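Lab notes, practical 5.
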Amino acid sequence: MRSILVVYGNQHERDRLEAVLRKRIGCVVLGADTPEQALQVLGGQDVCIVISDLFLPEKTGLEFLQKVHRLNPETLTIAAVPEGNRGIVVEVLRYGVFSYINSPYDLEEAVIVAARGLAFQESQSQKVPRRARFRKSDGFNGIIGQSPKMLSLFNMVEKVAEDGESTVLVQGESGTGKELVARALHSLSPRMGKNFVPVNCAAIPEDLLESELFGYVKGAFTGANQSKMGRIQYADGGTLFLDEIGDMKPSLQAKLLRVLQEKEFEPVGGVKPVSVNVRVVAATHRNLEKAVAENVFREDLYYRLSVVPLNIPPLRDRCEDIPLLIEKFMRSFNRNKKIGLKGFEKEAIAALTSYPWPGNVRELENLIQRLVILHGGESAGLAELPEKYVAHLDIALPVAPVESEPQDPPALYPDPGVSWSEEGIDFNALVSDFEDRLILQALNITDGNKKEAARLLNLKRTTLLEKIKKKQLTGISAD
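Output from the prediction step:
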């Protein structure tokens, strides 16, 4: 599907241009306030054309155009330049833009230039096949994962997306990628040509969330000098993503329930209902069933939202995906570095794979970004990882040698000599004692490192810990 990204700091003017492009050209139109936001969008979606204002200072805008071209050479750029400034026009053309339009926007001019750009791309794609935007390791619609649990989730997303109408409740711990799943539901659905509107219910103050969602009419309250469209109406025909819906106050829950049931709402201060056709995808890390039992979340709304529940597994439950995620994030963060991170040693990969990841994928992404910044030009090993990512390995720290008389290394196996008598021996007691001495000597050799002691004894670490606990060996902790 053809798509255009409009990058402009004035939201009102950007909304006008997006609406006109969507109506006149019939393509997906995305928006971003800043170059930084735009690069995030471009990193996760295949965009045909970028229409961007020359953000001040001018160098910032020109550098952004360069980054777009480096990120995907097939994306065409259209620069919005101040009307009458021929010098800037010449400069942006040197930076390889496809064309330019005047700023402030002339809507008719913008439509003509954008349509010409899409036609040019279509003619080029007939000559040379457009390269795939995602590699195999990028998984499904930018959601990385090849573990059985994620493949099952992808299958569910495809089925639910095709429906395009049913309300979906995405559940998962913080940092698991709930918004990515919501975006995949939208981009694979019949609504993909309309707006995807995300709203973080926890990030917007309670007294502002109502007007953000439902909009308001002129004069609704002090300072409401003109009417404002709410995000629900902006998502008409498309998808409304309500993140952290478990934080929504009860009064708003009732108004949202009406949207789901009646497909209409009233703006703040208004009396005339506004009809909408919107698909709601909600997400939360909270246990909504528990919230319903505690009377902090409406039961009727919960059942309306959870028509199709989707559960995202935490990262610790799909550790086989961690190497794929590491490779993806490293490649992404290396892209804008002169000297990137070379890679990860096997020991470091093993340590990260066995770490429990309480912050899930977001925590892993932040770690990789940190390593790329601090260790460019190097390979990351155990020494480069922050302490908390190796503490769970139970690695014995090196101890400075103490000068002393050389001694023979302790024998691993005890003397098997046994004193026999006419009454015979206590076989079980001797075997148990022999086992005790083996364990104690192995721990002595490894300076108490249970993992190494288990290796010497050819036992699993858990087996060794069980024996230490069962035998109550003095002075040894079985943790």
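Observations recorded by the TA: Residues 128-137, 396-404, 409-416 have pLDDT under 50 and may be disordered. The first strand starts at residue 3 and ends at 7.
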